[in-house]
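Shipment paperwork, digital attachment
Item: protein structure file
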Amino acid sequence: MPRMAAHARRWCQGCAGTIQDVASRAVRFRDPTSAYSLYALAVHPIDVVCPRCAARARVVGEPGDDRPSTTRARRLVCSACGHTATWSSRSGSSWWGAAVDPFFRQPLVLTTVVRGHVLWAYNRAHLVLLAQFVAAGLRERGPHEGCSMSLIEMLPAWMKSARNRDGVLAAVARLAARLDDPGKAALRLRGPAKTADLRRRGAHEHRRAAWSTASRP
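Attachment content:
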C-alpha cells in the first residue's frame, strides 16, 4: 500500500479529488462501465499534437451541440500557434481505440511505452481512471447498463498484470507531468493517422448511420 500511495501522490497533482481519496481508491476499484467509456471520456477536451507546430493542442466539443459524443461537432485549437480546424459527422467517420483522437486522427500527447507496449490516454480524466484501476488490489465488475464489454474489461492483459503495476503507474505519472508542464516538448509526429494504420491497430470506426448498432468501446 505505501508504494501505491507514493505513485498516487505523483500522478494526482492537479487532478480532481484529494490525495487521500486517490490512496483509498487504490485499495478497491469498481468498474464504472459506461460512465467511463471512451465515448464518455471524449466529452472532455482531448490533448493532441498540433499538426502545424507540434505543440499541445486540444480537441473540444462545439458549444451548444448536445448530440452524442460520437457525432458532436468538434474543433481543434492550438493556443501556441493559433491553428484551428473543425470536424463534423458529415465530413467523415470517427475512430476509437487507438493512440489518436477519434475525430482529426491526430497523435495523442498522452502516449508512452511500457515494456514494449503503447500506453495512451485522451486526457487527464482518462489517466485518473487507468491509475485507479492499475493501483487497486481488489477489482470488481460494475453494472453493464447495455454494454457488452466495458472500457476496463477491454484493457490489454499486460496492463492488467500485477507484475507491470509499478511500470504502468510510473508511466501514468510521467504523462500527468507532461500535462502540468506547458513547456514540455511535444511529439514530432504531427500528421493524422491513415485509415489502414487505424484498422491495423484494431481501432473501431464509427459511422453516423451505424450509431444504433455500434458497440461502446
